[in-house]
Design brief:
The structure holds 3 protein chains of 3 kinds.
Chain A lengths: L1 H22 L9 H9 L18 H15 L4 H12 L14 H27 L7 H10 L3
Helix pairs in contact in A: 2-3
Chain B lengths: L1 H28 L3 H30 L6 H6 L6 H6 L5 H22 L7 H22 L31 H11 L1 H13 L4 H32 L10 H26 L3 H24 L13 H27 L11 H33 L7 H21 L10 H24 L5 H28 L7 H24 L2 E7 L4 E4 L2 E12 L4 E9 L4 E2 L2 E4 L7 E3 L1 E3 L4 E9 L8 E9 L2 H18 L47
Antiparallel strand pairs in B: 1-10, 2-3, 3-4, 4-5, 4-6, 6-7, 8-9, 9-10
Helix pairs in contact in B: 1-2, 1-6, 2-5, 5-6, 5-7, 6-8, 7-9, 8-9, 8-11, 9-10, 9-18, 10-11, 10-13, 11-12, 13-14, 14-16, 15-16, 16-17, 17-18
Chain C lengths: L17 H21 L22 E3 L5 E3 L7 E7 L4 H16 L6 E7 L4 H11 L5 E2 L4 H4 L7 E5 L5 E6 L4 H15 L1
Parallel strand pairs in C: 3-4, 4-5
Antiparallel strand pairs in C: 1-2, 3-6, 6-7
Helix pairs in contact in C: 2-5
Classes of the chains: A mainly alpha, B alpha+beta, C alpha/beta.
Chain lengths: ~150, ~675, ~190
C-alpha cells in the first residue's frame, strides 16, 4: 500500500536522474581551445578596465592576455602555470577568482563555516526548546512585572 | 544668486530638521503632546527647503549658470535638455541633493499618514529618527558635499556630464527609482528604532510599516533591474551584472529587505521572530549607508564610482553611529522583547521562513565579504587582491538554488506543522511540471548541470506559485490575484524567470569579432551580420562614428563610437537586437579609417537576456498587486499595543505591555509568592 | 499564552541573553570592518608598485620605425628608460617635450638611454609624431611587452639599471626634472 503512494515520486526520480545524466556534460565549448582560453581569461582581471574580466573586455591589454593564454595552452602549459605567470607580472590583483592558498583562502572558507555554525546554532536552539517547555517566567521577568505593578 | 538661494535652502533644511528633532525629543522625554505636535510641523519646512534647493539647482543646470562649480563640472552648452535635468544626480553633490529631496518626501508622507497619532510616542520617536537622518544629509551638503559652491572664475562653458551618463535615456529612471527604494527604507528603520526605544514591539507598528517597506523594496527592485538593463545597453561588454562593488552595494539592502518582507509574516501570524525582524530592518538601513559609502569613497575600484571626496570618512562615521545605535538597542532590549512562543516543527511555514532568513543572511554575508575582502587582505598582508565575478557566481549559486527550493515548498507548507502526506499531495503537480520542463530543456539542447539545475528548481518553484494562483483564482476569480499572498506568488514567478535567465547567461553565449568590408557578412550562431557603411554624425554633445549593420537580413542597427569633447578615448555604444530566445549584441570595435574601409564589428549572441527585463516587469506587477488591499481589509487605526500613560524613557520596564509569559505555578497573579 | 499549572514550583530559568551576545558579536565585527574601511587607501592610489621591481627586466625586442631590429639587451651597461607610448594618449603627447629635453641632456654622456615601446598604435603615425615633436630614441613595436611589464595603462615608464634589473615604475605623465632626480638617485646608489 505504501509503495503505491511513493510510486509517482519514484517515477519522478527516475525521470530526473535520466534527464540529468543526459544533460550533464557537453556544456558549450568546454574543451575546445577557444573555450578553455575564455574560461581562463574569465578568471583574469583586465588590467586597464574597472573590474571587467579579460574575457569580456576588448581593451588592447585584454586582447594580448587572451593571445598569451592561447599560446601557452597550445604549449601545453597548465592553468596554474599561466595564472602564475600573470601574477608574477601584475601581482595577485590580476586574479578575479581569488587563489585558494594563503590569505585568500579565508574568503572561500569563511562563508561555509559561518553558515554551518548558524545552522548548527539554530538546530541546537530548536532541540533545546523542545526538551524544555518555554512557558516559564524567569527571575528577570518577575522583577519586571513587580515593577510594573508598582512594588 | 543661485548659490545664495540654494545654500540658504540647505541651511534652512538642516536647521529645521535639527529643531524638529530637538522639539520632538523634548516632547518625548517630558511627555508634552504640544511639543510633539510642534516638532512634527517642522516636516513641512524641511520639505520646502529641499524642494527649493533642488529647484534652484535644476534651474541653474537648465540656464547654464556656470558660476556654480557643479554646473561647470556636469553641464555644458551642448548638453541636450534631458541630460541637463538628469545631471542633477549624475555627480556626487547633486546625488546627495536628490537623496535629501526624496527623504523629505518620505517625511511628509509619514506626517500625513500618521497625523491622527501625533501624540503617540512611537510615531514621535520614528519622526525624530527620520529628522536625525535628514539633518545628517543636509549637514553633508553644508560641509563636505556642497552642491552650491562657486568658482572664482566664471567659465564660459562646462565639461558636461560623464559621457556614459548622457547617451541613454535610462539615466532618467534608474537613479531616481534606486533612491526611492534606498531612501524609503529609512521609514521602517525609524519605526524599528521607535519600537525598540518605547519597548512596543506589538503587531500594530508592523502593519503600519509593511506597506512602506514593500513600496521601498519594489522601487529598489525596479531600480536594480533598470541598472542592469542600462549597464547592458551602454557599457558594451555584453553583460549586465558584474558583482561590481557599487552593484553589490545596492543588492545588499535588497537581500535583507526581502528577508524582512517574508519574516514579518511570521511575526504577524504568531508573534515570533521579532528580534530577527528588528535586526533585519536595522541591517537594511545600515547597508544603505554602507553602500553609499562604497559608492562615494573610492576605496573600491568600480566603474560606477563617483569621484573621490572627503565624503567617505563622514559616511563611514555615520554608518558606525547607525550600527552602534541599532545594535545597542537590540542588545539592550532584544531579550526582553522576545516572544515566548517557539517553532513547533521545522517542517512548517515558520520553519521555512526561518530557513529563508538564514539563507538570505548567508547570501548577504557572501556578497559583503567578497566586496570588502580586497581591503581586509590588504590590511592583513599588504597585498590588495581582487574578488570578482567567478567568486560570487560560485559561492552564491548554492544559496540561490536553496532559495529556489524554499520558494517551491514554502507556499504549500501549512503553519505550525506539516505532514509528509500533505507535502506529497501538494507538491505533485509542481514536481511533474519541473520534470517536464527539464525534459523539454534537454531536448532543446540545453546542457550543463548548473543551468539544468536552475531550470529544474525554477520550474518547481514556478509550479508551486502557479498552483497557489490557480487555487486563488478558482476561489475568488480575478479579485483573488490581488493581496499579499498572491501578489507575492507573482513576484516569485518573476524571480524564477530572472534566476533562469541569469543562470543561462553564464552557460552558453557566443562572441566573435569580424573585420568586414562594406557589404560583407559574417555568421555567428545562426545569425547573419552584414556591415553596410559608416558615417560620422555630429550631435550637440558629441561626434559619433556610426556603423550600420544589418542583422539576419532585417533591421539595421547602429553601434557607434562617440567622441565627447572632454575625454581622450572614444566611448563605444552598443546596439542590441533583442529577441525572446537570444539577443544579438553589436559593438563597433574599431571604426574604419576612411568611409570605404573595413570596420571591426563585435558580435555577441546571448540567450534569454530579454527575460531578465520581462522578469523584472513581472516582479513589478506582483509587487503592485501585493500592495493592493486584500480581501480582509484591516484598518489598523489603533495599534495593537496602545500607548500606556506614563510610558517613556524613564520607565523602561513598565513599557512592556505584552504578556511575557507568566507561569501560574502557585503564585498569585499579584506577584506574591505562596 | 496559556498558563501552565503545576503543583510544585518548577526551576526558574534565567532569561537567555542571546540577543545581548549576538549584538555584542555583531557590534565587534562591524567595528573591525569600520576600522579596515577607515584605514584603506583609495583604489586608484594602489597602482604604482610592481612585482617586477628588483627582478631582471623582461626581454623586449622589435622593429623600430625604420625597420631595424632593436632589443633591450643592446643597452646593457647603461641605464634605460623604457617608455610606453601612443599618439592617441594625451598625457603621452604632453610628456614628449620633457623626454626630448632629458634625452638631449644625456646624449653626450650616454649614461641613460631611452627606449620607446608602441602601445597599440600605428608605427607610421608614431614616426610622424616623432618627426614633428622631436625625439631621436628608438621606438619599437612589441605588442607582448605591455603584458610582460605588467602595464595597466599608458604612459608608463620603467627605469632599468645597467645590469638589466628593474628599479622603478612610473605611471602617468613624467617630467624632465622628475626623471633627472630619479636617475641621479639611482646612479648615486650604484656609486
Amino acid at each position: 500500500m505504501s509503495l503505491r503512494r511513493w510510486l509517482p515520486w519514484l517515477a519522478l526520480a527516475v525521470v530526473l536522474v535520466g534527464v540529468l545524466a543526459v544533460g550533464r556534460s557537453g556544456g558549450h565549448g568546454a574543451t575546445s581551445l577557444d573555450g578553455r582560453t575564455r574560461r581562463i581569461a574569465a578568471d583574469i582581471r583586465c588590467p586597464t578596465c574597472s573590474g571587467q574580466s579579460a574575457a569580456d573586455s576588448d581593451a588592447p591589454t585584454s586582447q594580448e592576455i587572451r593571445a598569451l593564454i592561447r599560446e601557452r595552452l597550445q604549449q601545453r602549459q597548465s592553468t596554474a602555470q599561466i595564472k602564475a605567470y600573470l601574477v608574477s607580472k601584475y601581482g595577485p590583483r590580476i586574479l578575479l577568482r581569488p587563489a585558494t592558498h594563503g590569505v585568500s583562502l579565508i574568503v572561500w572558507v569563511l562563508p561555509v563555516v559561518a553558515v554551518a555554525a548558524a545552522a548548527a546554532g539554530l538546530g541546537f536552539t530548536f532541540r533545546r526548546r523542545r526538551s524544555r517547555p518555554s512557558l516559564h517566567a524567569s527571575d528577570d521577568d518577575r522583577r519586571l512585572v513587580e515593577q510594573a505593578l508598582g512594588r | 544668486m543661485n548659490h545664495i538661494i540654494g545654500y540658504s535652502a540647505v541651511l534652512l533644511g538642516f536647521l529645521s530638521a535639527v529643531l524638529g528633532a530637538l522639539t520632538l525629543a523634548v516632547g518625548l522625554v517630558r511627555r508634552q503632546p504640544a511639543a510633539l505636535r510642534g516638532g512634527r510641523s517642522y516636516v513641512w519646512l524641511t520639505a520646502a527647503a529641499a524642494v527649493v534647493a533642488v529647484g534652484v539647482m535644476e534651474r541653474a543646470l537648465l540656464t547654464n549658470d556656470f558660476s556654480l562649480k557643479f554646473v561647470v563640472g556636469n553641464d555644458s552648452l551642448g548638453t541636450p535638455t534631458l541630460f541637463k535635468v538628469t545631471a542633477l544626480w549624475s555627480a556626487l553633490e547633486g546625488s546627495i541633493l536628490l537623496w535629501t529631496l526624496i527623504l523629505t518626501g518620505y517625511l511628509v508622507a509619514m506626517a500625513v499618514r500618521f497625523r491622527d497619532r501625533v501624540t503617540d510616542p512611537l510615531v514621535g520617536w520614528a519622526t525624530l529618527t527620520a529628522f536625525a537622518v535628514a539633518a545628517f544629509f543636509f549637514g553633508l551638503m553644508l560641509t563636505v558635499a556642497n552642491p552650491f559652491s562657486t568658482s572664482s572664475v566664471l567659465a564660459s562653458d562646462g565639461s558636461g556630464p560623464n559621457p556614459l551618463l548622457q547617451n541613454h535615456p535610462l539615466v532618467a529612471f534608474h537613479p531616481p527609482m534606486l533612491y526611492l527604494g534606498y531612501v524609503g527604507f529609512t521609514v521602517p528603520f525609524a519605526f524599528a528604532i521607535a519600537a525598540l526605544v518605547t519597548g512596543r514591539v506589538g503587531e500594530g507598528w508592523l502593519v503600519e510599516t509593511r506597506r512602506w517597506t514593500l513600496f521601498a523594496w519594489g522601487f529598489l527592485t525596479i531600480g536594480i533591474v533598470l541598472g542592469a538593463w542600462w549597464s547592458y545597453e551602454v557599457l558594451g561588454w555584453g553583460g549586465f551584472w558584474a558583482w561590481d562593488p557599487v552593484e553589490n552595494a545596492s543588492f545588499l539592502p535588497w537581500l535583507t529587505a526581502t528577508a524582512y518582507l517574508h519574516s514579518v509574516m511570521v511575526q504577524e501570524r504568531r508573534g515570533m521572530l521579532r528580534v530577527w525582524n528588528l535586526s533585519l530592518l536595522v541591517a537594511t538601513f545600515s547597508l544603505t549607508i554602507l553602500g553609499t559609502f562604497f559608492t562615494r569613497s573610492g576605496v573600491l575600484d568600480s566603474v560606477h564610482s563617483f569621484s573621490t571626496s572627503p565624503l567617505g570618512p563622514v559616511l563611514l562615521g555615520f554608518f558606525g553611529v547607525v550600527v552602534a545605535v541599532g545594535v545597542g538597542l537590540i542588545g539592550w532590549r532584544g531579550d526582553r522583547l522576545r516572544s515566548p512562543g517557539s517553532i513547533d516543527s521545522p517542517i512548517s511555514r515558520e520553519g521555512a521562513f526561518l530557513a529563508n532568513n538564514l539563507l538570505f543572511a548567508a547570501f548577504a554575508f557572501i556578497v559583503l565579504l567578497g566586496t570588502v575582502f580586497p581591503l581586509i587582505a590588504e590590511a592583513v598582508s599588504g597585498n590588495r587582491l581582487s574578488v570578482g565575478r567567478p567568486y560570487f557566481d560560485r559561492m552564491t549559486a548554492p544559496v540561490g538554488f536553496a532559495l529556489l527550493f524554499l520558494m517551491a515548498i514554502a507556499p504549500v507548507l501549512p503553519w505550525r506543522k506539516a505532514s509528509g502526506e500533505l507535502l506529497r499531495s501538494r507538491l505533485q503537480w509542481p514536481a511533474w511540471f519541473a520534470a517536464g520542463v527539464l525534459v523539454a530543456a534537454v531536448a532543446a539542447g540545453v546542457r550543463g548541470p548548473v543551468i539544468l539545475g536552475a531550470f529544474g528548481l525554477g520550474a518547481f518553484a514556478a509550479g508551486a506559485a502557479g498552483r497557489q494562483l490557480v487555487l486563488a483564482f478558482r476561489r475568488q476569480g480575478w479579485r483573488g490575484l490581488a493581496g499579499r499572498a498572491n501578489g507575492g506568488m507573482i513576484v516569485h514567478l518573476g524571480v524564477v524567470v530572472i534566476a533562469v535567465a541569469f543562470a543561462s547567461s553564464h552557460s552558453f553565449g557566443h562572441r566573435a569579432e569580424f573585420r568586414l568590408a562594406p557589404g560583407q557578412s559574417a555568421r555567428l550562431a545562426g545569425h547573419r551580420v552584414t556591415y553596410l557603411s559608416s558615417s560620422t554624425v555630429k550631435h550637440s554633445n558629441r561626434t559619433s562614428i556610426e556603423a550600420r549593420v544589418r542583422v539576419d537580413g532585417g533591421r539595421v542597427f547602429t553601434p557607434a563610437i562617440s567622441q565627447y569633447p572632454n575625454s581622450t578615448e572614444g566611448i563605444g555604444t552598443p546596439s542590441v537586437h533583442p529577441g525572446l530566445r537570444e539577443d544579438v549584441y553589436l559593438t563597433l570595435v574599431s571604426a574604419p579609417k576612411s568611409p570605404g574601409d573595413s570596420a571591426v564589428v563585435g558580435v555577441i549572441v546571448q540567450p534569454l537576456v530579454s527575460w531578465l527585463w520581462i522578469g523584472g516587469a513581472i516582479m513589478a506587477v506582483g509587487t503592485t498587486l501585493a500592495a493592493w488591499p486584500g480581501r480582509r481589509r484591516r484598518q489598523p487605526l489603533e495599534p495593537a499595543s496602545a500607548p500606556v500613560p506614563g510610558v517613556g524613557l524613564r520607565q523602561p520596564a513598565s513599557s512592556v505591555r505584552e504578556p511575557v509569559g507568566i507561569a501560574f505555578d502557585g503564585t498569585a497573579f499579584d506577584g506574591t509568592s505562596p | 499564552m496559556s498558563p501552565v499549572f503545576a503543583g510544585a514550583a518548577p526551576p526558574r530559568p534565567r532569561r537567555r541573553h542571546t540577543s545581548l551576545w549576538a549584538a555584542a558579536a555583531v557590534g565587534f565585527v562591524v567595528a573591525l570592518l569600520v576600522a579596515v574601511l577607515a584605514t584603506s587607501q583609495s583604489a586608484s592610489s594602489v597602482e604604482g608598485g610592481s612585482p617586477l621591481i628588483g627582478k631582471p627586466a623582461p626581454a623586449v625586442a622589435g622593429p623600430d620605425t625604420t625597420g631595424r631590429q632593436v632589443s633591450l639587451r643592446d643597452f646593457r651597461g647603461h641605464f634605460v628608460l623604457v617608455n610606453f607610448f601612443a599618439t592617441w594618449c594625451v598625457p603621452c603627447q604632453r610628456e614628449q617635450p620633457d623626454l626630448v629635453q632629458f634625452s638631449q641632456r644625456h646624449a653626450t654622456s650616454g649614461d641613460v638611454a631611452l627606449l620607446g615601446v608602441i602601445y597599440q598604435d600605428d608605427p607610421a603615425l608614431v614616426a610622424k609624431f616623432f618627426a614633428k615633436q622631436g625625439g631621436s630614441w628608438p621606438v619599437i613595436k612589441a605588442d607582448r611587452a605591455k603584458l610582460d611589464f605588467g602595464t595597466t595603462g599608458v604612459p608608463e615608464t620603467f627605469l632599468i639599471d645597467p645590469n638589466g634589473i628593474v628599479l622603478k615604475r612610473l605611471t602617468g605623465q613624467v617630467s624632465d626634472a622628475g626623471l633627472e632626480q630619479l636617475v641621479r638617485a639611482a646612479e648615486s646608489l650604484r656609486a
